[in-house]
Amino acid sequence: MTKMIRSPAFWRSFPIFRDFDDTAIAALAGISSYRRWRPDTVIFQRGDEGNYMAGVIVGRIKLSLTTPQGRELVLQQIEAGELFGEMALLDDRPRSAEATAQVATEGFVIAKQPFIDLVTLTPEAAPAIIRYLCSRLRGTTEQLETIALYDLNSRVARFFLGILRQIHGNELPVSANLRLSLTQSDLAEILGASRPKINRAVLAIEGLGAIRRINGIIECNIDRLQRIAEPSKL
Ligand SMILES: Nc1ncnc2c1ncn2[C@@H]1O[C@@H]2COP(=O)(O)O[C@H]2[C@H]1O
């Protein structure tokens, strides 16, 4: 695995590093170290000092906020090929959310000061980081829109369509199959609702013929999902 994080192709598979030149890529390999996190490990807490950012090679990290009463909002789930913990590193403020490994996860960390030095020396870095942060802000806007403006059936439908777009791009087929590695509790955390309510919404969507669950696979009827996702278009 350490061999893998020395390879330029590995680094360029992370969109933020795609345009880095060979020197910068070699430097990245030199300032990063391999990490392995067991399931349920809290990697950092909100408010901690942030002296590294991290990336996922295999597995899944949850970024979330938790109230003192234990209510949780999942901001994002980070999968292979994605980074997290870059904000505290870039703005010199404490961690803005908690990071937890949801499953056995392998990844790497990049120490703060060497990364800042590298960014200062790499002209491609600033535009790449700006693009990355813009895409994160767009994700947050969509999440806010979904939670604030849509009822739960629409939220679930929008969630399925979001995953299908990650797989197929914006031109979705008429129907597509999904295999989710998430439980209904995970879905409840992501969509900001209780598990029983998510269960009712999934049943309602199934009752409307937009999905069919067979042996862990979700068969999606895209047109019906889109109608539920955007009820005003009905
Ligand atoms: N709104 C958000 N959407 C997605 N990811 C976020 C959001 N806010 C914070 N994060 C990530 O959660 C991380 C928490 O630690 P950092 O603040 O260092 O960096 C943060 C980002 O990587």
From TrEMBL:
CDD domains for this protein: CAP_ED
UniProt xrefs under Pfam families: cNMP_binding, HTH_Crp_2
Gene Ontology MF annotations: DNA binding; DNA-binding transcription factor activity
Coiled-coil stretches: none
GO cellular component, one term: cytosol
Domain HTH crp-type: 150-232
Protein name, per record: Putative transcriptional regulator, Crp/Fnr family
UniProt keyword list: DNA-binding, Transcription, Transcription regulation
Domain Cyclic nucleotide-binding intervals: 16-119
